[in-house]
Amino acid sequence: MSEPIKILLICLDGCDPSYITPSNAPSLEKAMRRGASITCESMVPTVTNLNVASILTGEFPSSHGIIGNYYFDESSGSEFYMDSPEFLMCRTLLEKASSKGRKTLFLAVKEKLRKLFCRGATTSFSVENPPEPIIRDFGEPPGIYSPDASIWLLDLSIKMLDENPYDLAFIVTTDFVSHKFGPKNSEAREYMKKIDDRVKLLMEKNFIVGVTADHGMSDKSVKIDLEKSLVEKGVWAKVIPAIKDEYIIHHQNLGGAAYVYTSRDNLKKISSILSDLEGVEHVIKKEEASQRYMLPKKRIGELLVLGDKDSVFGPVEKGLYEDVKLRSHGSLHEREVFFITNLEVDARQIKFNKDVFPYLLGKLD
Predict the structure, then answer these.
(1) In the chain, what are the domains?
(2) What are the tens digits of pLDDT across the range 30-39?
(3) Are 102 and 164 contacting, i.e. CB atoms less than 8 angstroms apart?
(4) Residue 20, phi-psi category: left (phi > 0), alpha (psi -120 to 50), beta (remainder)
(5) CA–CA separation, 182 vs 129, rounded Å?
(6) What is the pLDDT of residues 28-87, one digit of tens each?
């Protein structure tokens, strides 16, 4: 009797399509050339928690409720990292599968993602905080601010899927490398070759395998202080970076998207001030943002601000602008991602990264 088919979806955190080249990732690039792939769009803002939520639920943010990595509750004035399942407004596909008796696996480099999405999974853990039996059997994991963290995770995934009868698995790496190195950098190329080797091994097994990304990555050269620009014009508002999380070494909490919370009385003036800033590409009112990007209206700010390709938002010590040198995401310029699989791809069924997991699950029907 043949082994039951397993479904595995790998999310390469922050893996911009520019990293997948014949020299960097020959197996993935070959799959792209033979048509087993498609370019699709991530959710906006292009940050991790929001996009992994969409990938894992198959839903837009308006349904799952995650608006970014960070959340400001206007009613209480409290601020939270969006890393608890309490913020999810619907079940993940792993949770649904587990409720039907399927064995499911969720593995991540970052503990914040395990905490947010572990509910209902048969097995879940992170490289950042692995259980003692994993350390005993597989050794101490590398630090999460290391290219080796994602490699360690994929090696462990191969071992666990070989030795355990999981029906459905989701693996998400970390974007430390793409934040630190561009696709032509030798460190990035070495990292992608190692990723490619592991993905090739998994694709050669009796699994249905899909590979996607939560967002892309761009070089950034300018930091803009949105909040200070308003204060200087005599207006106060709460500016929340969508990218803000616990892992500041990755991106210093500087990204190309921010929510602005304020009273509606000041909205017109604030919108005008922010729109006039060089490097601000879009200032979008709540109603339009919720419709255009399918965001939950009750959780987002009165405005969504998106930067141009070169700009990020954050505090500036002197003036409103500061030169920076980093790689980050959050804006529309990191929206293009990919879906690669060991199946044929029907482009009509996949427009967004949220569509890829339901597409793979549909192959079992």
Answers:
(1) 6-216+335-362 (3.40.720.10), 218-328 (3.30.1360.110)
(2) 887 776 889 9
(3) no
(4) beta
(5) 28
(6) 888 877 768 899 999 999 999 999 999 999 999 999 999 999 999 999 999 999 999 999
